[in-house]
Write a structure and sequence with these properties.
Peroxidase, domain 2; 2 strands; binds protoporphyrin IX containing FE; binds 2-acetamido-2-deoxy-beta-D-glucopyranose
Length: about 325
């Protein structure tokens, strides 16, 4: 097919695949790129110059109202990217023929959908059919990090929205019962180093977990958990499965207190605490606990990388007009 046509498009295609190959080789050699091949920092410069600003304004005013939603937005981007790539699949509603990701028990109380909807609505008014829901989720997460006191960073844009969202795919999300070596494996399959995985886990500097996510730790004495902290968790769980426990002592501030908590054996999730217990990750935890700037630097790099996971470009996806359903 490629060789039967001879339009300039074909030449461009060949050139692009050449570049692609080259990039893959270079990436293989360990170089880092700002974005997946077709993503660009200035992707919407000509087609929707205010998109970025609209997202930021929407996020800021929503977080002013409810600071706890910063956590929701960051987690939403993570779940989006880890299932089927960063393609907005996390936003799709179930239909009568299909149960979508968001109705999985693993949607685990995702929050912040309204913020994405508000931003999308305003953007559609200015430039209909241009800005993908996946990009809005990615930008919103980035803005939430900064709003909560974390690092400022730019992300490449140009993700297209996917057409698949299935409950069974959520099996690819890490469970809070995994230990450090299992987390290393799981993130390793997505191309992350152990250090990047520890940095990304630092997102747990924001937000809460519900009792159902950690109560299994309370059954038998867990030597990796501080005894008085175990009592705190038990007290939380006396409020039922949905009772919330902050993941670190400063739940709306993006800082490195999460790593201090792990050092103090006061990590809420088993998976979190295992980063401090695990021989291959404890050094990284100690490093970030000591040096917040290093955590911030690694975190933003790892977030940019996560935002490039299996991105759909060109005709591999679409720009949904309503984030909740495929066009
Ligand atoms: C390392 C593997 C990870 C595991 C096992 C994990 C698991 C969990 C669990 C069980 C919760 C609590 C859910 C609930 O009880 O409602 C949670 C919350 C959260 N996770 Fe993770 N997570 C991981 C990595 C990440 C990453 C990479 C990010 C983002 C970059 C992230 C962001 C968040 C945020 C912000 C919250 C709080 C949500 C809120 O307060 O609404 N997590 N995570
Ligand atoms: C998450 O899934 C449950 C079913 O497991 C569903 O009742 C709930 O509405 C979903 N939450 C969101 C925000 O979609
Ligand atoms: C992690 O869990 C796996 C599976 O249960 C187990 O085989 C492995 O030994 C555990 N690793 C550590 C360091 O505890």
């Amino acid at each position: 097919m490629l060789f039967m046509r001879s339009s300039p498009m074909v030449i461009a295609d060949v050139l692009i695949s050449g570049l692609l190959l080259m990039e893959m080789t270079i990436v293989g050699l360990g170089f880092r790129f700002g974005g997946a091949d077709g993503l660009r920092m200035d992707y919407y410069l000509m087609t929707c110059p205010f998109a970025e600003q609209i997202v930021k304004t929407t996020v800021n005013s929503a977080l002013q109202e409810d600071p706890t939603l910063a956590a929701g937005l960051i987690r939403m981007h993570f779940h989006d990217c880890f299932i089927e790539g960063c393609d907005g699949s996390v936003l799709i509603n179930s239909t009568k023929d299909n149960t979508a990701e968001r109705d999985s028990p693993a949607n685990l109380s995702l929050r912040g959908y309204e913020i994405i909807d508000d931003a999308k609505e305003e953007i559609e008014q200015q430039c209909p059919g241009v800005v993908s829901c996946a990009d809005i989720v990615a930008m919103a997460a980035r803005d939430a990090v900064f709003w909560a006191g974390g690092p400022v960073y730019d992300i490449p844009k140009g993700r297209k929205d996917g057409r698949r969202s299935r409950i069974e795919d959520t099996i690819n999300l890490p469970a809070p019962t995994l230990n450090a070596s299992q987390l290393i494996d799981m993130f390793g399959k997505r191309g992350f180093t152990a250090q990047e995985m520890v940095a990304l886990s630092g997102a747990h500097t924001l937000g809460v977990a519900r009792c159902s996510s950690f109560k299994q730790r309370l059954n038998d004495a867990d030597p990796s958990m501080d005894a008085s902290f175990a009592k705190t968790l038990s007290r939380t769980c006396s409020g039922g499965d949905n009772a919330e426990q902050p993941l670190d002592p400063t739940r709306t501030t993006f800082d490195n207190a999460y790593y201090w908590a792990l050092q103090a054996k006061a990590g809420v999730l088993f998976s979190d605490q295992s980063l401090f217990t695990g021989p291959r990750t404890s050094g990284v935890v100690n490093g970030y606990a000591m040096n917040q700037a290093m955590f911030f630097f690694d975190f933003q790099r790892a977030m940019i990388k996560m935002g490039n996971l299996d991105v759909k470009e060109g005709s591999k996806g679409e720009v949904r007009s309503n984030c909740h359903r495929v066009n």
